[in-house]
Amino acid sequence: MFYCDYPIINEESGLPLYLINLGKHICQPATVRPEGYPCHQILYCTRGGGMLCVDDKKIPVYPDTAVYLPANCPHEYYPTEDEWDIHWVVPGGYTIDRLLKVLGFEETEVFELSDVTLTEHFFSRMQIGRAS
User: What is the per-residue pLDDT for 36?
Assistant: First the structure.
C-alpha cells in the first residue's frame, strides 16, 4: 500500500510553517537520490527494517526509529527485510530553516521515538485534517 498527499500547497505557501507532503509506504521500495530531495524530510519506521546510506555511512532503520534528512542531502535507502514500512512528513514555510536549526536539526540525524503510538496518532490526524 502507498499513500501520499502531494503536493499539499495551496494558499499555505505564504505561511511560516505548513506541510508540503506526507505519506506512507507499506513495503517501502529502494530509493536513490544522488542529488537529495529538494525539501527537508522526516521519515519514521513502523515495521520491518531498512538501511539508510548517507555521507558514506550505512545506518540501520528499524521500528520506532526516525530520520531527519536536510534538503538536498544526497542519500539512498532500501529494505533489508521482507517488510519495511516508512511514513514521511515534509515541512515547508518561510521559517522552516530557522525552526529546524533552533530544534538542532542541521545535519542528517537518526533518533529513537519514545512513543510511536503518539507519533502515529499525530500522523493520522494530519491525514484526517487534509481529508476534511
Answer: 96
DSSP structure class, residue 11: G
Taking alpha carbons only, the member of 7, 27, 14, 3 closest to residue 90 is 7
C-alpha cell at 69: 534528512
What residues are paired with 61 via a beta bridge? 50
Q: What is the pLDDT of residues 22-38, one digit of tens each?
A: 888 888 999 999 999 99
Tell me the residue ranges of DSSP E strands in 1-132.
2-5, 18-25, 31-33, 41-54, 57-61, 65-69, 75-92, 109-112
Only one residue has cell 529494505, namely: 79
